[in-house]
Design a protein that fits this description.
232 residues; alpha/beta; nine-stranded mixed beta sheet; two-stranded antiparallel sheet; 7 helices; 13 strands; 29% helix
Length: 232
């Protein structure tokens, strides 16, 4: 039986619809996982029932995390938020911690994991963390944008077996203060936290870049594969 991976859907307020970049699911299929897309809801009973049938969870990119979750007021440059999604992912995160189920957070996903562990975010990098690196690249999103340095003796290093990789980059927010119980596993050239993990858990990891846009890249496949296999 394949490990079932619950993938969080995205919300489009203009079209009043839920959607998903298809390579999130095809990437999971490529490493022999069974993806199912979870509809957005804040119904606790329904969320927990969905959790019970999943072996792991993929927290996707998308809306900004509501700054109220880390006790800040939104600045003008903060983007659109989706409170239902924030609530749903908080419940799933707490469930996964309790049941020791795996989570991989991508882009918004790493940011949300950090916030749920008590950390904070830069609400807008162009204003709050000026850099020569362009973290909001233009298409094609599969192209590498900058390098990240992987810390030795971390799960990510054990997966990739290398200390430097080139990654794509499409985000205007990022980790500021690191959350409690998290450790850094990769840092960008300009000092931003690019990957985190939670020690003593089977697989709670977050990465700031987008492997779903580069599922033909061996490093992307190794990350997705290690995630799906951890769900056994």
């Amino acid at each position: 039986m394949k490990n079932i991976i619950g993938i969080i859907s995205l919300w489009d307020s203009k079209k009043d619809s839920m959607w998903l970049v298809p390579t999130y699911s095809t990437g999971i299929e490529k490493v022999n996982g069974l993806p199912i897309v979870l509809p957005l809801t804040d119904n606790v009973e329904n969320i927990l029932q969905m959790c019970d049938i999943c072996d792991g969870f993929l927290f996707t990119g998308g809306h900004d995390v509501n700054p109220n979750m880390y006790h800040q007021e939104p600045i003008a440059q903060c983007g659109e938020v989706c409170n239902v999604r924030d609530t749903m992912e908080k419940i799933i995160f707490q469930y996964a911690l309790k049941e020791d189920k795996s989570i991989l957070g991508i882009c918004r996903g790493i940011q949300l994991i950090n916030v749920l562990c008590g950390g904070t975010l830069y609400q807008d990098l162009s204003l709050q963390h000026k850099s020569s690196i362009n973290h909001v690249q233009k298409p094609p999103y599969s192209n590498p944008q900058h390098s990240v340095y992987v810390q030795e003796d971390t799960p990510l290093y054990n997966t990739l077996n290398k200390s430097k990789i080139d990654v794509n980059s499409y985000h205007h927010q990022a980790i500021d203060v690191l959350g409690k119980d998290l450790k850094v596993s990769a840092i960008s050239q300009d000092g931003l936290t690019e990957a985190v993990y939670m020690p003593n858990k089977k697989f709670i990891q977050g990465i700031q870049w987008h492997p779903e846009f580069s599922i033909d890249n061996p490093d992307s496949i190794k990350i997705l594969d290690s995630f799906v296999k951890s769900c056994n």
